[in-house]
Specification:
The protein has 264 residues and is mainly alpha-helical. The chain has one domain. The chain is built from eleven helices and no strands.
């Protein structure tokens, strides 16, 4: 696959899929609550298509090694969601999202200088998820206000996110491989949800979705670990399916626990 075609396909898929999932996540949060919205938002929405394209051009060993980097980034994304959820309780959008972005950039810069192993990446995720969840859990149960959205609201949401994704992805191809790697792992879906929900529903509503997404990112970590372990022995295709199954299984498990009335 030529670089031009790869770029065009990756850009189109990430713009379309991210925009679609943003609408699903925000509508789900409005109607089913922030828990389900957060679980939907933490699915491999933007990374999944990227890995599919990577598997077409690279070996299963390359996919396995890349999964460790994605696992590290997942822990950084947990902190990103936590910072926003904490500040959005009382702070405006620009301050909450700006601080989250600054924290993400700082941690990504530090992480990029470390030679990660699977064990180290797992421990980093455990630390980030447990600490962030315990502190932010009080924000998770805010009732998201119902808003009657018109058709053009969805068009505006999708267009805004598509523009944001396109800008980030395009920029990453002009600033060098190291910076590109950092930007490629940026939580574009989370940022889009923050941007849309904070403006339309308030900071506490958006923070509730992000606080629940921290729990969902534990499932993303399980999926990434599964991908790393399965890629070489089974091949990239089956490993990607197993990784997705692990993510979905975690989400269904959390939802089933909630339906039984147990605290999660």
């Amino acid at each position: 696959m030529s670089p031009e075609i790869y770029f065009a396909l990756t850009l189109f898929v990430r713009m379309a899929v991210t925009a679609a999932f943003l609408i699903v996540a925000t509508v789900t949060a409005e109607r089913a609550g922030p828990l389900v919205g957060g679980l939907v938002a933490s699915l491999p929405i933007s990374t999944g298509p990227v890995y599919i394209f990577l598997s077409l051009d690279h070996s299963s060993q390359f996919i396995a090694e890349s999964a460790i980097g994605t696992l590290v980034t997942n822990g950084i994304n947990v902190v990103f969601a936590f910072i926003y959820a904490l500040l959005a309780q009382k702070r405006p959008l620009w301050m909450s999202l700006g601080a989250a972005i600054a924290g993400w950039v700082a941690l990504a810069w530090i992480a990029n200088s470390i030679a990660w192993t699977l064990t180290g990446a797992i421990l980093w995720n455990v630390l980030a998820i447990v600490c962030s969840f315990l502190i932010a859990r009080e924000f998770r149960h805010y009732r998201v206000p119902a808003i009657r959205a018109r058709w053009y609201d969805f068009v505006l949401r999708a267009g805004l996110v598509a523009l944001l994704v396109g800008t980030v992805v395009t920029l990453s191809f002009h600033i060098g491989p190291k910076a590109s790697g950092l930007i490629a792992g940026y939580p574009i879906v989370f940022s889009s949800i923050m941007l849309v929900m904070h403006r339309s529903m308030g900071g506490r509503a958006a923070a509730a979705v992000m606080a629940n997404a921290i729990l969902g990112l534990a499932g993303f970590a399980l999926g990434t670990i599964t991908l790393h372990l399965a890629a070489v022995p089974l091949g990239s295709g089956p490993a990607l399916l197993l990784g997705l199954a692990a993510c979905l299984s975690w989400g269904f498990l959390i939802y089933a626990v909630r339906l039984r009335g147990m605290p999660v």
